[in-house]
Amino acid sequence: MKNIICCLLSFIVIGILACPCFPQTKYQTDVKALKKQIVITNLMNALELTPSQKTILIAQVHKAAIFERQYDRTIQQHYVDQKQTFQYILREVQTGKLTISPHIQRRFRHYQHEIENTEIVYQKKIQKVIDIIKRTLNPEQIYILETYKPCVIPHRSSGRIGQADNLKGMTKKLDIIYKMKDKQSNRMKDQMISKLMTRIQYRMPIGYDFDARKQYNTLDRMMDHMRSLSSADYAIQKSYILEELRPMIFKIHKKDRNVGMAIKHFILQPYTAHLLSKTTVARND
After folding, report:
1. Distance of alpha carbon 37 from alpha carbon 30, whole angstroms
2. Which of 23, 102, 160, 204 is the most buried (most CB within 10 A)?
3. Largest CA-CA distance found in the chain, in angstroms, rounded
């Protein structure tokens, strides 16, 4: 029974903790919206869609929007009901009760099931839309979606659309540190570690328990190991050292984006349909 109470309370706590860390001003919201539009536009330009592909994508985006509105209406009502259930649970546990009334437990499980079922139905509908878009795109366009990294300033210098992880600067710094004498190398090594630590801490959410000393020691050992290598070993292991440093230098997503996720995130957006309709009309004119 205690497990049930803990489970119910966890949903309340998670809901509280899910709030944004920083208040969003109107200007921040506007800038984020503009940034997203630029990112989507850059991707659409890179895909070089044909008129027939644009027609199909516009239809699928509108279909996805209908599914999303249906989902929003249904899920909102379920959460209104579930909120009331949480209020009942909170009142009971605040009295010191170790057991929740059976009818409230049933109510909680019922609405939790309804929420999960609504989400599953929505996901299946959206997956069908994604599958249609996948079949509409050619292999080259699929590859662009797989490798696209959201960018504000587009460039193709590396043969890749979007922002690429540019390790050239870090490679040069590692080479300099490796070739320097100990005294000079130690000073530059400390500077590099300090900059990396600043980047890491900047990305940490407020309240995150970050062990700065442990992270510093890890980087320090990595640099010392690099300097202890022979020239031949350093040439071989340098790429591995860079791969270890990469997550500290660049913001790596917790989960790599696959084609389906890219379609959902970039293509199934209201702005995408507006953009494709606009460019189709412009070309026809």
Report:
1. 11
2. 160
3. 75
DSSP state of 160: S
Q: Determine if the pTM surpasses 0.85.
A: no
DSSP string, 45-112: HHHT--HHHHHHHHHHHHHHHHHHHHHHHHHHHHHHHHHHHHHHHHHHHHTT-SS--HHHHHHHHHHH
Write out the DSSP string of 2-19. Answer: HHHHHHHHHHHHHHHHTS
Structure tokens, 152: 């504000």
Give the angle 224-227-232 at the CA atoms, nearest 5°: 140
**Amino acid residing at 183:** K
| Tens-binned pLDDT, residue by residue, of the chain (285 aa) | 445 444 544 544 444 444 445 566 777 888 888 988 999 999 999 899 999 999 999 999 999 999 999 999 999 998 898 899 999 999 989 988 888 889 989 988 898 889 888 988 998 899 999 999 999 999 888 888 888 887 777 665 444 455 444 556 677 777 877 877 676 677 777 887 887 777 666 565 544 556 778 878 888 888 888 888 888 888 888 888 877 776 665 544 444 457 888 899 899 998 999 999 887 544 544
Of 85, 90, 78, nearest to 105 (Cα)? 85
Looking from the CA of 15 toward its CB, the CA atoms found within 13 Å total 11
**Nearest to residue 264, comparing CAs of 119, 64, 72, 120?**
64
Q: Where are the domains of the chain?
A: 2-8+36-162+257-284, 168-203+210-249
